[in-house]
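User: Can you recover a sequence for this backbone? Please restate the input before giving your answer.

Assistant: Of course. Working from this structure:
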């Protein structure tokens, strides 16, 4: 059975690639991390089949981890009471062999350690057997978001006798499924080494199938490549406008234009307009013209041509925001929209 990971660029059709693999005969499991991408997958599946087929299971990652990997084998024995999405104490009081390292006194499981708990208790072979029993193919979308113990568990499930297809974009790594100290802390520091982790686990690495963006124009791709420093090419020669807008009246008109989404670094909901945050826009594919709102420091980087040198996490989120554009890409200083921000 084919076991592969496809590394793609923004707008190249990662979600479409997965949906095209589906049929109404085999048993498919789809796993993704963000709510936006789960909803996007569901919509595209219904668009393809006219309904949501019963042989397809679509789960968010932590639903898969808790309900599929943990509950059938350990829930009754450990008598736990669900997941807790807060971090354990900074200093661990218990060794790895002690259940109290993985749950609170009220027996709520720490989400960032549940994957390790599954491994620690020798449950991985049972999860593999369960995958083989109920599914023929397992697809993981936005695989670049898997981190910490979650990434390790994902790699340990590769030996299952099912088809595997992982898709993701290394540079769209804007969130982590979880973090736990130094576990996989440097996972996303080096693209080549990152690919090596998948090869070592037994996956075929595909860098060619989704190497061109069908969403972004050549103009937007050139800007991202040259100014942000993340290589991306367009599937065509279509041109669009990429500009920086400093005129107060023009910025106000963009703010009031309901057809142009405004993407903020954070707290978009405080601006009372058609908007989203940079990182949270990942997986959204329906925007035409996009306005990216820049902080004072990023305005300075724009003007000095040093956007490629900004903080890596911020740069990845900026890449996500810019690559939402099907049409024009407009940049506006946050200072020009400050008056609209609610206290």
């Amino acid at each position: 059975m084919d076991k592969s990971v496809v590394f793609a660029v923004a707008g190249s059709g990662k979600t479409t690639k997965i949906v095209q693999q589906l049929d109404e005969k085999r048993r498919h499991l789809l796993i993704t991390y963000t709510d936006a991408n789960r909803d996007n997958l569901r919509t595209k599946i219904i668009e393809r089949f006219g309904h949501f087929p019963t042989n397809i299971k679509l789960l968010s990652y932590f639903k898969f981890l808790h309900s599929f990997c943990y509950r059938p084998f350990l829930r009754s024995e450990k008598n736990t009471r669900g997941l807790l999405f807060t971090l354990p104490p900074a200093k661990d009081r218990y060794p790895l062999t002690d259940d109290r390292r993985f749950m609170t006194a009220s027996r709520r499981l720490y989400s960032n350690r549940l994957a390790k708990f599954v491994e620690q208790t020798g449950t991985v072979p049972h999860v593999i057997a369960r995958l083989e029993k109920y599914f023929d193919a397992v697809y993981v979308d936005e695989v670049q978001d898997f981190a910490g113990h979650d990434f390790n568990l994902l790699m340990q499930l590769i030996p299952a006798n099912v088809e595997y297809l992982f898709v993701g974009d290394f540079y769209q790594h804007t969130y982590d499924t979880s973090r736990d100290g130094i576990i996989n802390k440097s996972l996303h520091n080096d693209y080549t080494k990152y690919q090596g982790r998948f090869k070592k686990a037994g996956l075929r690495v595909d860098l060619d199938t989704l190497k061109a963006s069908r969403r972004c124009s050549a103009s937007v791709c050139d800007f991202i490549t040259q100014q942000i420093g993340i290589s991306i090419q367009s599937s065509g020669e279509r041109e669009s406008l990429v500009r920086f807008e400093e005129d107060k009246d023009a910025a106000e008109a963009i703010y009031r234009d309901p057809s142009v989404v405004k993407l903020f670094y954070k707290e978009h909901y405080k601006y009372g307009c058609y908007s989203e945050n940079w990182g949270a826009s990942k997986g959204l594919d329906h925007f035409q013209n996009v306005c990216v709102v820049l902080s004072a420091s990023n305005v300075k980087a724009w003007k000095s041509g040093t956007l490629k040198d900004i903080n890596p996490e911020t740069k990845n989120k900026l890449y996500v925001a810019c690559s939402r554009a099907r049409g024009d890409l407009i940049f506006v200083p946050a200072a020009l929209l400050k008056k609209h921000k609610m206290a």
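That completes the design. The mean pLDDT is 95.
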